[in-house]
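Hi! If you just cloned this repository, the fastest way to understand the data is to look at a raw example. We've pasted two of them here, unedited. The first protein comes first, obviously.
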Amino acid sequence: MKLQSRAVETRSETRAAKLQGKRVGFVPTMGALHDGHISLVRAAKAQSDFVLASIFVNPTQFGPNEDLAKYPRTFEADRKKLEAEGVDLLFAPSVEEMYPDGAVTFVPVEGISDRLDGRSRPGHFRGVATVVAKLCHIAEPDVAFFGQKDAAQVAIIKRMVRDLMFPVEIVVVPIVREPDGLALSSRNAYLSPAERKQATVLSRALREVHAQYRSGERSAARLIEAARQVFASEPSVRLDYVEIVDRDTLESVSQVKAGTLVAVAAFVGSTRLIDNVVLT
């Protein structure tokens, strides 16, 4: 596995792969890799001939009172994991490489970026869209892989790719969970043992909604109330939102159907976690 920190060298590597007729797959990450990230890498390996991964903790997607400073940084362990999975190229730029002095251009995806996490974290998705646009411009991948756990991010990136006519296919990989249902997240490392147990309330609430949907309930309001009742069983967990939305537009719906997205966010202690399920 090659390691690059400069955009121009990274682009040269991926262009060389394309000249050899290889399909370039891209897995962007912020590091602190877990099995969810590895599932993205394995999907990329299965669907590509040349796999590029990136590790970059993007400052523009963190708010002023968020966890940028303490976000887990485990570069050497991450590098070894990616190498073991057969990644061909790792791009690990500095902040200065990605945001040169005086950079003032950002990519806001209007409207949709103000929904779900965008409402709770103003400016977050502007940072996400900007860095993904930059990374795709640098890497020029044929296909990029994202996790379903970040469902709002997926919807926004898909919209950006469509609107700006990026020549890249977006593949969404299913959520990877612990045996007790907790969705894997780099932020799970912040949880104390007691908080770790409490955090399962997110997946339990989603399972209850899914069970009621499969039993015939179609009212979004009643399904949201069912989720809230599950959260009430863990009073130490502070619910940020539970919403039922169209998975492409993130707009709220009153009646649910197959393919509708149920999304939750909550604070377990000081750690904010998200989770979701697509109704089937």
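Ok, and the second one:
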Amino acid sequence: MVQVIPALEPVLDRYDGFIIDLWGVLHDGLSPFPWARSTLIALKAAGKRVGLLSNAPRPAAVVAAKMRDLGFADHDWDFLMTSGQDAWEHLRTRPDPWYQALGANHYLIGLPKDEGLLVDLPGLRVFDVSDADYLINAGIDFGQTLDNVRPLLEDALGRGLPMVCANPDHWIVSDGRPEVCAGLLAAFYEHQGGTVRYHGKPFPGVYATCLGLLDGIPKSRVLAIGDGLKTDIKGANGAGIDSVLITSGVHGEALRLESDGWFDEVALQQLMAQEQAQPTYVLHRFQ
């Protein structure tokens, strides 16, 4: 049974470690939420270990710099991990047979801000799919849709190129508008018969990394906080840790969320069934 809570305070004593989403919980991509930094500071003041986990398709240092630009400080958390960091480390070190078989030449589906994924990679970056051995998928620009890259993806499918997806999110909300993410492109590619390796939430590898960074805190004392059932909550379920769904994020419209925090509980049950994910708690916003 999901418990609706008015704030984190009533359950705070049950947890020593926190794994917290960024977009939709701490900021909307353009501005920080007014209550976000004070809540992080309160967690640290209470002696909690705080980790940030983002499905941003960029190295962690790039996201940390963005957080500083938004008014946060490095001491607001103990570590910051991203799906892009996880993907980059696998691409660079080739730790398993799947990566070792990728080949040398990579084609980036992404923006200039995503090029940190390419630093120190073996092989060459190419600018034509016909020259590539594999795709690195970091997503497309705001305002674009799957149709903008469908011809490229179909060309890559015809060539049998594997894809590394550096952000499993399908959608985010920026400035009140839904925007397509890399995960939606990867889902299309996989549905059409392509091979995809995902990094980030909800996949278990990145949770194992985060739990290791929490200095041995038992899973029963770790709480994940995020706004996405498909990623944050499903990932927490798979990792065996409790979770909080923030209703004011990506699901706000589907939940018919009102400004006072009211939401449609039937709609939530339907979304949970659809995504096969269940939070421990539901909270209007991160406070």
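That's it. A detail worth noticing about the second one: The chain has nine helices and 13 strands.
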